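Recap from last week: sequence in, structure out.
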Amino acid sequence: MSSILKLLLTLLLVFQSIHSFSQNKVAIIGGGMAGVSGAQFISEFDPKAQIILFEKEAGLGGNAQTVVVKNKEGKLVKVDIGPQYFIEGPWNDYIAFWEKTLGPNPYESETVDASLLIQRKKEPKPVLVSPLGMKLRGEKLGKLLKLKRFNKEAYEMYKHPEKWRGITVETWVNQLKFEESYKKEIIYPFLAASLGTTVSEIKKTSAVDIVKLFAFRKPKASNQFKVMTDGMATLIQRIGEKMDPTQITIKCSAPVIRVVQSKEKWLVTYSSNGVEQTELVDFVIFATHADQTAKIIKSEPNLAEVSKSLKHITYFEVKIALHSDSSFVNTEKPSFLNIITTDSNELVSSTMNLSMISDRLNGIYKSWASTDAIEQLKRSGKLLHVTSFWHPLITTDFVTQLGILHREVDQFPSLYLSGGWSEGLETQNSAIISGKHAAEKYKAFLSKVKK
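Predicted structure tokens:
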């Protein structure tokens, strides 16, 4: 072999070594909106990064789950059983992400006017029913004016949260100038329904975070919400299909079992077709719920404090059922959100009348309901689909623990905990924000590597 050829081969090997060093391998655990957006943002920033996206389910989506059920006419239609509606303003990051990844007009949408009904079980008349459009429906004007005033109070908190940090819902509601009966009959059931939990649990939650769920519109703003016709999960899967397979590898049905440190890298062990496999990576993003992350990192002693903080985050179960039982709503005074309570004002069910979105969803109702109610739906043959979701209870202690958790994770330059919950309130928009924050942590990691 000539000396020139040897020199060329040596230079080629050096070039390959440098090139492989510059290709950081990134593991993203969780294929919901947080994981998918994190993968997208990192790939845009660092085209050399090799990204592996792990998802334990058969398809991408996470909490965004689109299912196919039959409507009243027997036609198959797509319905989001998880998060469903969005609105310009509070969901601007979410909307911008779709337009950036899928192009202009990336989805067909339907609109629904927000309307509310609160009624005690087995009582014929509602405790409160909002106007439908601009039409009053026999409600006492005083109650509606109080509801408007309540919305104004909540909007003030939404705009100026710094005044209310660390305050529970119960403390906030106690100082509102409404009669106790109004608080018990209307305010507490409404707040509990907004999160899908009980009245006793909602009282312990962080007031600042809860009002973000419903007080994002000015009191005089439009009540119209958008719903994606093809479903949120369907669109997340479309983004996965558009991702460059030479840079982003998507592994579905591949639950991650554990993550441990291996010198300066992370060893990710996952299951594929029942067989354990491993990937050695430079950077890890957990786009999973806190309890799942705690299970995955429990074998790594250096993450013991992170694991301990994760276990402080309390979860509650929400069962969401799609069904065809009209007894969950008031058919004489149709409203989009129907809240049914007991005589003692505890929440029985919270039901979205999807018929009010579109004719294609005629006869379909989406309910937060008890296990007993779901069993009854099964026996009657009216249950179309049911899914359990687990959400962190956003108490003031949760907010404190989240701050501690972020500080602990900051000590690990190549690790980030993502997901909507990691931003304090779990929505599809906060999931996008967490994806951006994951990319920012990765940028900081790269700058340290280059030094």
